[in-house]
Design goal:
mainly alpha, about 0% strand, 2 helices
């Protein structure tokens, strides 16, 4: 017959690991304290240590990731600004090209009137801020 081992039976030549008693000769650091005050103090110390370690890890992670986040944010602002500038310029150019001349003239007169009104508001605010009287707007619109 051939040497055949039964897989259902454990091999006797392997030793099972032995668990060392928790009350070891190193002063019993693995033994839970018997006194509630000591248990509370041990818990507080472990919690404090974990908090300090976590705080340090979070701070290091933030310090490492902040420059990258700032760079990505700046890139996003730049991209958004580009898109807005492109859309405004593109739209304005198309409107100028494809609208009748009377509409273009109306846009130009409206732009000029809006600029004058804004200048008047600015002059009035400056005058109120400094105590001077505002200049009277030119009735001719110049």
């Amino acid at each position: 017959m051939s040497d055949h081992t039964d897989d259902n039976h454990p091999h006797n030549d392997q030793e099972e690991p032995q668990v060392e008693n928790e009350a070891s000769s190193d002063g019993g650091s693995a033994v839970p304290p018997n006194n509630p005050t000591e248990a509370l103090r041990a818990f507080k110390d472990k919690a404090s240590e974990a908090f300090k370690s976590g705080s340090k890890d979070a701070r290091e992670s933030f310090e490492q990731s902040f420059p990258k986040a700032k760079e990505e944010f700046s890139k996003g602002i730049n991209d958004a600004s580009y898109a807005i500038g492109y859309a405004v310029s593109f739209g304005t150019t198309l409107i100028k090209e494809f609208t009748p001349e009377t509409v273009n003239e109306g846009f130009e007169r409206g732009r000029q009137a809006g600029t004058r009104a804004a200048d008047e508001v600015i002059q009035h605010r400056r005058a109120n801020h400094t105590g001077d009287t505002p200049e009277e707007p030119d009735p001719a619109g110049a």
